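Reviewer has doubts. Consider these tokens.
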Amino acid sequence: MQRLANILAIVVTAALLSVGVASAAGLGFTSGKLGAGSAVVAGCTSSSLTATRNVDNSGNVTQLSVTGVPQACAGETLAATLENSSHTSLGSASAVVGSCTGGCSMTLSGFGTVSAANVTAYALSLTQ
């Protein structure tokens, strides 16, 4: 009886292996292409933006006024981050640049409670 069980196990194992090999043989191989590279991404401006902060009576930044945003940047998102001397973010805000003629001016708000005394830098970015 034991011998019959062993033979049956060998036959089932062989059948399963042959199905697996037959399935693998049916797989097709194609020659795909894989590549990497870099591309130049043109921005809407190459000029520097100018920012000034507005401070309330408690010494907290309430708004950041950004000037010199070119008309070509209309529709893009202007983001500003208030940073301390370690370039750690103290607060950030963003808005979509509207259409304008000449240089656009934008006012960003919603930074939270950020003490103006702690702000040493602004990080500005424009993204599509």
Summary: The CA atoms of residues 4 and 10 lie 10 Å apart. The domain at 50-127 is CATH 2.60.40 (Immunoglobulin-like). The radius of gyration is 32 Å. The mean pLDDT is 80.
